[in-house]
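Checked the freezer inventory, then went back to the computational side. Two predictions to log before the end of the day. The first one is the construct we discussed on Monday; recording sequence and tokens without edits.
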Amino acid sequence: MPVLCVDTTAYHLATELALLANPLCCFLAFFVACRRPPVLGALCAFSVVVASLIIHTATLSPSPWLVGTTQGTFLIILLNVLWTGCISYTKVNVASILQGYGENALMFCGIITQLGSCIGAICIFIISMRTSSFKAC
């Protein structure tokens, strides 16, 4: 089992609550739909800021902000749930907008989404394996 720099309870809660936030925010998008591009752009920008905070916290390992405190645990959990929920809500709304443009638009949206995930995974792999940005606890 890998050594975690955060409390295992915090890691477990962040993971489980983020997994719960995903379907809840997707379900919420059916009732509170947002089809305005400026609002979706703002949600994307907010997601980038939250993701940047998560990555910055990871690079501060083994002693990130508020390590070992209740506030630090709450911050880690909150950031993960906010990011997952915001991304899920945005992706459902973008897909619902593209649905009106036909099957090809949804296919290209899926291709771009998978390509972005692939590029992100490759970048994180290179950063974590080839640089000293992330340190073991």
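The second is the one RB wanted added to the comparison set:
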Amino acid sequence: MSSLYNFVKRHRRKFVAGGVVVGGAVAAIALLDRHITKVREDERKKQLEIIRKRNHFDSTDSAVAASLKHYFAELKSRIAELHDTSQLKEALRQGPDKEEKIRLWNEMKNLCFGQAVSFIIAEAFLAVLIRVQLNILAGYLYSTATNNNEVDSRLTQKFQEAFLSLANYFVQDGFQEFTDIALLNVKSCVAFIQLQDEIGLDNVENIFSQIQDRILSDYPERNLVLNPGRFLLSSTQSIPSDMTGKERELYKEAISETLEIMESQEVLNLMTRACRRGFSLLIDKIAEPFLQDEEDPSNSDTDISSPQQSDESGTLPDVIQDFVSPCRIQIPLVKILPELSSVLDSEEGESDNSEEWLQCLLESPDLKTLGANVYESFSAVNNLNSNKKSSFSSAAWNFFQNLKLNQND
């Protein structure tokens, strides 16, 4: 026993040092395990949050698609209603004198081009508006749900309906004013083209390009993109009177944020690209008269695969040598008007001519990126309840910062 005591006494410093090392190691392992557990828990929460946010954004994207399909059809009906040519066609059937006939055809020319222009530009604007509004609203709802503040109590059904009514106002009222402005630009661009003048597909494309440039850039005070509030807000109707004070404040801020985004240069650039794509689709739709003019009935029975059509020198058959690209064919303007007039029509058993434009707007990468940036910016707003105005402003600032980052990438 004394020997054990003496052994411990001689090596007491080693035992103390060993105990400190072992205790420290145990404590370090415990701290490391706690840290790893915390990191794993934070990572798990982060992944769950990403999944939750993705699901919420996907549901918002589905709501955008459903809303756009609904309003797209409504606006299409309004376009057909405001550009109706049935009375002009009936007047032409009555056999008017030459001067009156020319006047009626010129009026039909303006309405046909105006209908096509309104169909492309107004529907593109509507697609941008719906995507921006629904993602702003979804961002607010997500932010308030994750931050557990009380601002969501002000995002009532009444507020949401009032905020989202901008699209309905544009279709029912604002589009009327846009149509008047669009027709003025159409008339100035096609006035120099006579009905008997022969034009090609490139000429038609240039006409649409000129009209688009004027509508999207000229006269800022009555411009659909530079001053969208003119077409989205009534000059006589005020904020719904049955809203509470907090709802009215939030409504003003939400409308202000929507207009700020819609008036941005980024949205103007997006609209320009989308409309160019739309007019390209439209040119494809109205190319049939040029294709018919290209066909030669005398060669209808010729079999270009027959070896008898090649001479001994190995030259190409005449039917191939005489081929002319539809882009080089020119036909009288009057032959194109029926195709422009039927842009909104659909024949039984065939797909709607407008369906391709709708799908283009729904699947546009530019529009989807815009919606994602808006959602990300407004869902990242924190402490809304503490400072509403600055938080709304920070949401818009975040949006434009996201756009700059995407452009740099």
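For RB: Residues 296-314, 383-391 have pLDDT under 50 and may be disordered. Residues 12-82 form the longest helix (71 residues). Let me know if you want it refolded.
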